[in-house]
Amino acid sequence: MAVIDVTDLRKRYAGRPVLDGVSFAVEAGEIFGILGPNGAGKTTTVECVEGLRRPDGGSIRVLGLDPYTDGRALREQVGVQLQHTQLPENIKVWEALDLYASFYARPRDWRELLEEWGLADKRDARFGKLSGGQRQRLFIALALVGDPRVAFLDELTTGLDPQARRATWELVKRVRDHGVTVVLVSHFMDEVEELCDRVAVLDRGRVVALDTPVGLVGGEQRMRFTLLPGDSVAGLDALPGVTDVTRTGDRVVVTGRGDFATAVTAHLARHRVTVSDLRIDRRTLDDAFAALTGRSFTDR
Amino acid sequence: MTKLAVVELKLLVREPGAVFSLLIPLFILVVFGSSIEPGDTVLLPMALAIAVGLVGLYMLPTTLATYRERGILRRLSTTPVRPANLLVVQVLLQLVLALAACGLLIAVAGAVLGAHLPTRVLPGALTFLLGTAAMFAIGLLIAALAPNGRSANGIGVLLYFPLAYLAGLMQPASQMPAIVAAVGEYTPMGAFRLSMQDVWAGGVPDPLPLGVMAAYALVVSVLAARFFRWE
After folding, report:
1. What is the mean pLDDT of residues A212-230?
2. Which residue of chain B has the CA closest to A98?
3. For residue B80, what are the domain limits?
4. Given a cut of 80, is residue A159 above it in pLDDT?
5. Predicted confidence band of residue A63 (pLDDT cuts 50, 70, 90)
6. Quick one: pLDDT at residue A300?
7. What pLDDT does residue A289 have?
8. CB distance from A85 to chain B under 8 Å?
9. For A40, phi and psi rounded to 5 degrees?
10. 20 to 30 Å CA-CA from B17: which of A130, A173, A190, A242?
């Protein structure tokens, strides 16, 4: 059953279309990524799905409810971590959890969350004194304190150091393992590749691709090497998994899928061909994004 | 809702600004109080006006604008609780703060300085309510218009000093140019001080300053509601 069903979502700001017919469905128990460069419409999409904004057109169902008209019933079952939100400087960690728990009809025990998210020793610390990673863990704990069925996490690791990012990723996997469906908004390719079961790629208010990270990358790899003068690469193109062989002088590029690299190296060894400068590049989501939009991910 | 009120109360107590709103008018009262005559009906109304003005023009807008700036109102709107609840709790708590500041002033003036206190409660209570409503309305308008907590703070301070001057809180109204003093009677703090002086003199407050405060409360709070943004 789809937990979230979005069909032909449209939204304009000051006459300018921000969302131009966005459609996707999120299945129960998955980590669903919404990926795109800044300004692609990611945050507007989730804000419509969360019921914070009213769409101009299209339909949204979350757990069978309309987020805008059935907002109250829905908010009991949904946890949200918003981009750019803070807590009051002087609120203590336990007070924030206790307060947010009181908003829900059937909250989780916040003391458990404190343990689970490694905040037990920060119980009495004020929000203003927490590190970036600790704040992020507190925000996730607050998103989960209502015992939600769906959690929205928006730009979770922006501003964290690499180690804290890795740690946060592990925590997000743990949320999913507890049976919570996770919608992850991100502009980090590596994060989406690492975490998501499926990804909707947004560009200029449209979904330009919707697939698994592996499916998006296409599973293709490229092998490059240099031959000694006079050597031949005949027969490489007939190997299992190889899709293309291009030779330019002594430089050879072999493209293929699956375990083709092993077959290629075995073939070369059998024919006593010595190669140098051997490199294997995997296509990344960055490459996939460039192929989909004709633009590199980092420029807007 | 109860828990929200308890947590917000704790946060208010931890806020240095709240302590200042209690101590500044008290300091003024004590410094000038030592040199006044026992039957004085001017100093305490002035101190009360300063206290209510500080809470309404400084504490209230800074807190609310900071909450919006930090996305706290937005975050609340993703929970089953409406963010309007937080506004209501804040306005009530700031009212309690204004009441506490005035209570402290009256207690210290009565017990320590032996100042004159009015015997009738009702006119004083009415004046307090109207004056607080007028000053809070201005505070809410500042909170509605200020882009963030720091600018709300700045606007509050910037408005506070001219208003306090016009109200005759910096210099006795009798020593101010007549025209300025007359204008001052139509400012919320000036009307509050005048009414409170009537109350302290033992009479019923003049309807004009009461009407001035009611008009500010009504018109400015409608404007504040019109311009308020949740994010």
Report:
1. 83
2. B3
3. 2-227
4. no
5. very high
6. 42
7. 77
8. yes
9. -80, -15
10. A130
Q: What is the CATH number of domain A220-282?
A: 3.30.70.980
Q: Is the pTM of this model over 0.80?
A: yes
Q: Are strands A181-186 and A150-154 parallel, antiparallel or unpaired?
A: parallel
Closest CA to B44 of B63, B58, B22, B26: B26
Contact (CB, 8 A) for A99 and A169: no
What are the tens digits of pLDDT across the range A247-281? 888 899 998 887 788 888 899 889 888 888 888 87
Q: Domain spanning A2-216: which superfamily? A: P-loop containing nucleotide triphosphate hydrolases (3.40.50.300)
Percentage with pLDDT > 70 across chain A: 98
Task: Tell whether A70 is within 8 A of chain B (Cβ).
Answer: no
User: Contact at 8 Å (CB) between B131 and B52?
Assistant: yes
Q: At A79, which helix (H) or strand (E)?
A: strand A78-81
Distances (CA, A) of B99 to A159, B53, B56, B110, B142: 43, 12, 12, 16, 21
Instruction: Kindly report the backbone phi and psi dihedral angles of residue B81, in degrees, each rounded to the nearest multiple of 5, phi listed first.
Output: -90, 135
In B43-82, alpha helices (H): 43-54, 60-69, 72-76
pLDDT, residue A144, reads 94
Minimal-distance CA residue of chain B relative to A49: B78
| Cβ pair A55, A86 in contact under 8 A | no
Q: Is the pLDDT confidence value at A1 over 80?
A: no
Our CA-based measurement puts residue A161 at a distance from the nearest CA of chain B, in whole angstroms, of 22
**Each residue's pLDDT tens digit, B3-33:** 999 999 999 999 998 999 899 999 989 888 8
CA dist., res. A113 & res. A97, Å (int): 9
Could you give phi then psi for residue A147, rounded to 5 degrees? 55, 55
The alpha-helical segments, DSSP class H, found in chain B are: 2-14, 16-33, 43-54, 60-69, 72-76, 83-111, 122-145, 149-166, 178-184, 188-200, 207-227
Does B77 sit within 8 Å of A85, measured CB to CB? Answer: no
- Banded pLDDT at B126 (limits 50, 70, 90): very high
Touching check for A80 and chain B: CB below 8 Å? yes
Span A199-206, average pLDDT: 92
Distance from C-alpha of A60 to C-alpha of A80, rounded to nearest angstrom: 17
Q: Which residues of B touch A84 (CB under 8 A)?
A: 71
**Chain A hits for B80, Cβ within 8 Å:** 72, 75-76, 103-105, 146
